[in-house]
Structure formats: C-alpha cells, structure tokens
C-alpha cells in the first residue's frame, strides 16, 4: 500500500546543514499535504513544516528562517533543507503525508523516521 520512506538524517555540528528527503510510493491517487514532524527524546511529536499541493507552507516558529520545505508533486517527494542547525534540533524526524489512495479515503501516513543529531 502507501509507504513513506525518509532519508538524509545523520550527525552534524551546530551551525551546519542537512537535507532530509521523503518519497511516497504505492497506490496513490493524490497527495494533499506533505511535511515533517519531529520528536525529541522525552518530548511529544511536533510539527516542523508542511506544504500543501498548492504550495502553501507552514513552519514551526522555532525553525522559521532556518528550514525550508519543498515538494515535487510529480514525484511525490518532499524535502526539508535544514540550515544553521542547533542542538535543540536533535530529534527523530518523521515524514508526514495526507493522501487519498486509489480506491480509498483520504488519511494520514507516516514514515518510520530518520535521526538527526546536532552536536555542540
């Protein structure tokens, strides 16, 4: 069925950059929203950034000006360019998508997560 697969996580020093990517595959009719959430150790999962199929974006205040989300509707992919990384950005980052599958109803899908570690 529908699957989201993340890539690009890793270890980076404070002030550095990483680029996360996510690809949606499977029986997809239409993707309405894609984005990224993150969960730090001991904390709840929080929204990082989302983008609609119309190009509207929404960012968490903590990442505005540092992170940029982009999507390719034709390829069913979304990326997150993360610059000026801070130790507090350390978390497991999860790809998110709101998708209407072929023959099904719209629903949310989640990737398995990719770890981003920012050292000080």
Architecture overview:
It is a single chain. The chain is mainly β. Helix content is 0%, strand content 60%. The chain has no helices and eleven strands. The protein has strands at 3-7, 10-13, 18-25, 28-39, 46-52, 57-59, 67-72, 77-82, 91-101, 107-110, 114-119. The strands form two sheets. Strands 2, 4, 5, 6, 9, 10 and 11 form a seven-stranded mixed β-sheet that branches. The chain has a four-stranded antiparallel β-sheet with strand order 1-3-8-7, with no helix packed on it. A hairpin with a 4-residue loop joins strand 7 (67-72) and strand 8. The N and C termini lie far apart (40 Å). 31% of the residues are buried.
* Tally of DSSP β-strands: 11
Number of continuous helical runs: 0
Question: Per DSSP, what share of the residues sits in E-state strands of 2 or more residues?
Answer: over 45%
Distance between the termini: 40 Å
User: Which regions contain 5 or more consecutive residues with pLDDT less than 50?
Assistant: none
Shape, principal axes of CA atoms? elongated
* Average pLDDT number: 97
Helix content: under 10%
Task: List the defining traits of the structure above.
four-stranded antiparallel beta sheet; single chain; mainly beta; 120 residues; 11 strands; seven-stranded mixed beta sheet
């Amino acid at each position: 069925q529908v699957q989201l697969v993340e890539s690009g996580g890793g270890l980076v020093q404070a002030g550095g950059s990483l680029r996360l990517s996510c690809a949606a595959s499977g029986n997809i009719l239409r993707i309405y929203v894609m984005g990224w959430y993150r969960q730090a150790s001991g904390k709840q999962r929080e929204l990082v950034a989302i983008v609609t199929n119309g190009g509207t974006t929404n960012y968490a205040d903590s990442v505005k000006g540092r992170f940029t989300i982009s999507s390719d509707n034709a390829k069913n992919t979304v990326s997150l360019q993360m610059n000026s990384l801070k130790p507090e950005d350390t978390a497991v980052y999860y790809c998110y998508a709101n998708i209407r599958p072929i023959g099904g109803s719209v629903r949310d899908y989640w990737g398995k997560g990719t770890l981003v570690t920012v050292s000080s």
